[in-house]
Amino acid sequence: MSSATWTMFDGDALDVLRQLPNDSVDAVITDPPYNSGGASSTSRTNQTARKKYVSSDAQHDLPDFTGDQRDQRGYLAWMTLILGQCLRVTRTGGPLLVFCDFRQLPVTSDALQAAGWVWRGVVPWHKPIARPQLGGFRRSCEYALWATNGPVDAARNPVSLPGLYTASQPRGSHRVHITQKPLELMRELVKVCVPEGTVLDPFAGSGSTGVAALAEGRSFQGVELSPAYRRVAESRLSQAALGTIV
Predict the structure, then answer these.
(1) 113-164 pLDDT tens trace
(2) Going by C-beta distance under 8 Å and a sequence separation of 6 or more, which residues neighbour residue 171?
(3) Is the whole-model pTM more than 0.90?
(4) Among 32, 93, 135, 174, which residue's Cβ finds the most Cβ atoms within 10 Å?
(5) DSSP letter string over 36-100?
C-alpha cells in the first residue's frame, strides 16, 4: 500500500506559501487563475471567471472562483511573487509545471523566469473538443510551462515524458470545477515529480493534481481559497487515498 499522504491548506496561496518551510516539496504543478478570457482589458478584468470560461449552453451550475480579474501588469507581479515562493519551497532540481492559455503564455514565462526558475519548455495540452473559431483556427490547446529549480535532476527521476498530450475535460457528473483538468492528463504530468516525492499545488481547485499525485504514489500539498472547492478537493483526496480514483 502506498505511503503517500495529502494535506489541504485553507487560504490565499501567497499567504500560505510564505508559511511553508524551505526545500520541503519536490515539484510544483499548478493551474492558477488565467486572468484571461477577453479581447479587451474591460472584458478580461470585469467579467467573472464563470462568464469567461464556461459556455452559455453548459449543463452545470458549478461555483465561480475569485482572483481572475487582474490586468496584465498585476498578473505579472502576482505570479512572480507566487512562483518565487514556490521556488523557495522546492528542492534543488525540482520541476515546475504551470498552466496557461495562449494569451497568458508570454507573461507567464516572464513571471517564472523573474521568480528565478529556469524555463525548460512548453508542453501543449490538446483538447479534442474545442469551440470553432470562424475565419481562423480552433483554440484547441492550452499549455503547461515547464521549468526547474536549477539543473534538471535526471539522476533522481530518469523519466522521458511526451512533450504533447491529448485529453478531454471531464463531462457530465465527472465535471466538478469550471476549469477542471483531465485526470488522465494530470496522472501523466505528475510523473515529472520524483517517485514517492511531494507535489505542491497552490491553486488546488477541485484537487485533480492531488488525486493524480496519490494515484501515482506521490504525496500532495494543496492550497485552496474557495470553501466550496476546498470541500470538493478534500472529498476527492480522501477517496483517492483509499484507492478510489474520482
Answers:
(1) 999 999 999 999 999 988 888 999 999 999 999 999 999 989 999 999 999 9
(2) none
(3) no
(4) 32
(5) ---SSHHHHHHS-HHHHHS-TT-S------SS----HHHHHHHHHHHHHHHHHHBPTT-EEEEEE
